[in-house]
Specification:
two-stranded antiparallel ribbon, Glucose Permease (Domain IIA), 14 strands, 49% helix, alpha+beta, 346 residues
Length: 346
């Protein structure tokens, strides 16, 4: 019994070792399937090539029979020749059709390009006319700017607006219209710089007019009743006095305006002046407004006033024979004729 068990055990071990020897990996299985598939494909391809060769080797006989029927001409053509001839003819027909289509498209493009060329020529003619018109207006504008600048400034570099010449380049050809536009661009740069300087001059001029008594001192025009200089005293008519300002008769209560920016130096009742306001301006200039009915809002010594601000209202306080504004301009403490200053902005 023990001998039998040993024999069975040995047989089982042998079978196990044999199975392990013939066990295949996945890669080996894939290789076997690929070889089988490829062999099947080659076999089918071989059969197909044989059939194609059989069909291609067959011949087609064309018999040409003349009218005299003396001799018949037999032409043998294989299917190979017939096939390649047919393919060649089809290729030639397709190529011809493609060439004809491309030629038609090219002709259409030529027509479109000609129309575009005509349009561009018309546009160029219009641009040329516009450039000439703009150029003429530009030089008129330049002349006007030159006249304005020469009228407000004696600086030579502000008045020089001569055309800037553009030199010809022998290597490139510049169209006349482009040259004109380039020249106008350069000259516009010069004009723009000069206009900036003119603007600065105008701003300085405006600032100067705000800082010196250049505005009419009343909100409405008054009647000049007494000029600057010697006159008969309106109260004591038997004597001559020197009138230090001008008298402007107007409706009572008319607002009195500051003739320039400045600082209120005096706002009080001062003898014959009555209620008087004196404003100190720049450059040693002062203005005096007398015989007021009352002061304007915010008017007191040390207050800052702007040109055109209401500083009082026309009255008849002090040495006065009627409602009017007594207006003086003083430079360095000395009175001057205020009439040219009052009419400066007219």
């Amino acid at each position: 019994m023990a001998t039998y068990r040993k024999r069975v055990s040995r047989n089982a071990e042998f079978i196990r070792q044999r199975d392990e020897m013939y066990r295949k990996t996945n890669w080996q299985k894939f290789q076997e399937k690929w070889r089988l598939f490829w062999s099947e494909m080659k076999r089918h391809l071989q059969r197909l090539m044989i059939k194609i060769h059989e069909k291609g080797s067959q011949r087609l006989t064309i018999m040409v029979v003349p009218h005299s029927e003396k001799k018949t001409i037999n032409i043998h053509i294989s299917n190979y020749v017939l096939f390649f001839t047919t393919v060649l003819l089809v290729a030639m027909v397709v190529t011809s059709m493609y060439t004809i289509s491309e030629n038609a498209q090219a002709n259409k493009q030529v027509v479109i390009l000609r129309q575009l060329d005509d349009y561009n020529r018309r546009q160029i003619a219009e641009y040329k006319s516009s450039i000439e018109s703009v150029s003429e207006r530009f030089y008129n504008f330049k002349s006007d700017i030159g006249s304005i600048i020469s009228g407000v400034s004696s600086e030579k570099n502000l008045q020089e607006l001569n055309p800037i010449e553009i030199k010809e380049n022998s290597n490139t050809t510049v169209a006349r219209g482009v040259k004109t536009l380039e020249q106008m661009q350069f000259e516009l740069d010069v004009i723009r710089e000069n206009v900036k300087r003119l603007g600065k001059y105008v701003m300085d001029h405006k600032r100067l007019l705000r800082e010196m008594p250049s505005r009419y001192p009343l909100q409405m025009r008054g009647r000049l009743t007494s000029k600057y200089g010697p006159r008969i005293d309106p109260v004591y008519k038997w004597r001559i006095e020197n009138h230090p300002g001008i008298d402007l008769a107007v409706i009572p209560g008319t607002p009195v305006l500051a003739a320039a920016d400045g600082t209120v130096r005096m706002a009080e009742y001062n003898g014959g002046y009555g209620l008087v306001v004196e404003v100190q301006h720049k450059y040693g200039i002062a203005t005096r407004y007398a015989h007021l009915m009352r002061f304007g809002p915010g008017i007191y010594p040390g207050a800052q006033v702007k040109q055109g601000q209401v500083i009082g209202y026309v009255g008849t306080t002090g040495k006065s024979t009627g409602y009017h504004l007594h207006y003086e301009v003083r430079i360095g403490g000395e009175t001057v004729n205020p009439l040219p200053y009052a009419t400066m902005l007219e």
